[in-house]
Write a structure and sequence with these properties.
It is built from eight helices and six strands, in the order E-E-E-H-E-E-H-H-E-H-H-H-H-H. The protein has 292 residues and is α+β, with helices and mostly antiparallel strands. It folds into three domains: 91 residues, Ribosomal Protein S5, domain 2, CATH 3.30.230; 46 residues, no CATH class; 140 residues.
Length: 292
């Protein structure tokens, strides 16, 4: 079982600089990837997203990349020599025409910004990837291990909650016949009272038919059986890959069945255990939100 929350990091040392990669994740319905990269590695963004998707299926993943040291610069400084030559010649003619005797300096020529050309150097993407990939992969694996460790802890907690629910359902199953007998006795007492009050004006056959129907309506055997099936399914899912969404759905079903059972039982003893089961299901739902 894998949690969606975790943290990972890694360093990769190159000749003149070091790359640091931080990877962290929180729960999310789908896979969402956020990248914060130095300008040098922007062109690798899509490739890095594919790399992250190889490791994770769900969660909001944030990748932060930093450079420490003197990394190679992706820009070059060039000069428009032809323009500079023309500018020098024209400045010389202008100087002579105006009667200036001082020599034209390089600094004066460089004041004309059109002469200096700063261009982005085309980087070899494979070289950039070789710089980044070791730190990225190690950080992602570290994050994966962190999520698996957290997932193992969540699995243990959920298993404990499910076991507690199983114990409560066992108690309810034990009480079932007792509650049924109590309800029948209550019905009999009420019927006897009604028959005395109406002194034969009631159709006893029809009355007992209605009572039988009513007793069927308050029988919670089916709900108890479905709860047991859902519970066994939940135990099984704990050992399967990516059970988060399925467990969340089962929690909804458990909550619905225990509510119906409690309403049907009309018993304080059952209601108390139903409330305890609902609290356990809510605890499971809270944990399930973090599971892949």
């Amino acid at each position: 079982m894998e949690s969606m929350t975790g943290f990972g990091r890694a360093y990769h040392q190159l000749e003149n600089f070091q790359i640091f990669c931080l990877a962290k994740s929180i729960n999310h319905r789908y896979l969402e990837i956020s990248l914060k990269l130095p300008r040098r590695y922007i062109l690798l963004e899509e490739r890095m997203r594919r790399k992250v998707a190889q490791f994770f299926e769900r969660g909001k993943i944030e990748i932060l990349l930093k450079i420490y040291g003197l990394s190679p610069q992706g820009r070059e400084v060039l000069f428009d020599l032809e323009l500079a030559q023309k500018l020098r010649d024209n400045l010389k003619v202008l100087s002579e025409h105006l009667g200036f005797t001082s020599e034209i300096t390089l600094g004066e020529i460089l004041q004309f910004r059109e002469i200096v050309l700063i261009e982005e150097r085309e980087e070899d993407l494979e070289v950039l990837w070789e710089e980044v990939n070791p730190a990225l992969e190690e950080a992602l694996q570290d994050l994966k291990n962190s999520r698996l460790l957290e997932g193992s802890s969540l699995k243990e907690k959920i298993s404990e909650y499910l076991s507690s629910i199983h114990s409560k359902l066992t108690e309810i199953a034990t009480l079932k016949e007792k509650i049924k007998e109590e309800n029948i006795k209550k019905m009999q007492e009420r019927v006897s009272k009604l028959l005395k009050e109406f002194q034969g004006r009631l159709d006893e056959t029809r009355l007992y038919q209605e009572i039988s129907i009513l007793l069927d309506k308050i029988d919670f055997s089916e709900e108890l059986d479905r709860l047991t099936i859902h519970l066994n399914t939940a135990f099984h899912l704990l050992s399967t890959p990516n059970p988060g969404k399925k467990l969340d759905f089962l929690c909804q079903e458990l909550m619905r069945e225990i509510t119906t059972l409690s309403n049907k039982a009309q018993s304080a003893e059952i209601s108390l255990r139903a409330v305890e089961i609902k609290e356990l299901v809510e605890k499971i739902r809270e944990q399930v939100q973090n599971i892949v």
